[in-house]
């Protein structure tokens, strides 16, 4: 009997991050915990939590992808994972360092954007209150 493989695509907002056709298993993280997907698992969908997505191929073995939050959908032998950001690697130590650098940088940018947005919102509210008093 011939082994059955899944087709995995990890999608980012503007490009395909990974596309594999010989995937034997996938392990994903959700807010309720991790779960595994084998080729004959029933079709399903899940909200992905930030964490490590693990997949194993016949040719490359086990690989790891750090993913931001997103959605996983399995239909037949196709598994689509759509996330905001992803970083790939085969060594968990190096992947952890990359994630820390990348996500710490994003956190600083997000804090800066949130600060600007808060200033804009407070200015808008102040002008609205002044407008109502006129």
Q: Low-confidence segments, ≥5 residues, pLDDT <50?
A: none
Instruction: Give the mean pLDDT.
Output: 83
Please tell me how large the radius of gyration is.
20 Å
What's the total helix number? 1
Number of strands: 9
Largest sheet: 9 strands, mixed
Fraction of residues in helix = 25-40%
What is the CATH class name? Mainly Beta
- If you consult CATH, what is the topology? ATP Synthase, domain 1
> What's the shape?
elongated
The CATH H-level homologous superfamily = F0F1 ATP synthase delta/epsilon subunit, N-terminal
Strand content: over 45%
Give the ordered list of helices and strands: EEEEEEEEEH
Class of secondary structure makeup: alpha+beta
Beginning-to-end CA distance, first to last residue: 81 Å
Characterization of the model:
- The protein is 31% helix and 47% strand.
- By secondary structure, it is α+β, with helices and mostly antiparallel strands.
- It has a single domain (6-133), classed as ATP Synthase, domain 1.
- Strands 1, 2, 3, 4, 5, 6, 7, 8 and 9 form a nine-stranded mixed β-sheet that branches.
- The longest helix has 42 residues, at 92-133.
- The protein is elongated and about 80 Å long.
Give the arrangement of secondary structure elements.
Layout: E1 6-12, E2 15-30, E3 33-37, E4 44-48, E5 51-57, E6 61-67, E7 70-75, E8 78-83, E9 86-89, H1 92-133
Parallel strand pairs: 1-8
Antiparallel strand pairs: 1-2, 2-3, 2-5, 4-7, 5-6, 6-9, 7-8
């Amino acid at each position: 009997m011939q082994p059955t493989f899944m087709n995995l695509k990890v999608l980012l907002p503007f490009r395909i991050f990974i596309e594999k056709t010989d995937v034997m298993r996938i392990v994903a993280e959700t807010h309720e915990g991790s779960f595994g997907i084998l080729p004959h698992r029933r079709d399903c969908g899940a909200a992905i939590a930030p964490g490590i997505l693990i997949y194993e191929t016949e040719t490359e073995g086990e690989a790891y992808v750090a993913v931001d939050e997103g959605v996983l959908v399995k239909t037949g032998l196709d598994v689509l994972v759509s996330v905001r950001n992803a970083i790939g690697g085969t060594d968990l130590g190096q992947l952890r360092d990359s994630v820390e650098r990348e996500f710490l940088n994003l956190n600083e940018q997000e804090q800066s954007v949130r600060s600007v947005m808060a200033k804009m919102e407070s200015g808008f509210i102040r002008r609205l209150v002044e407008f109502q008093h006129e």
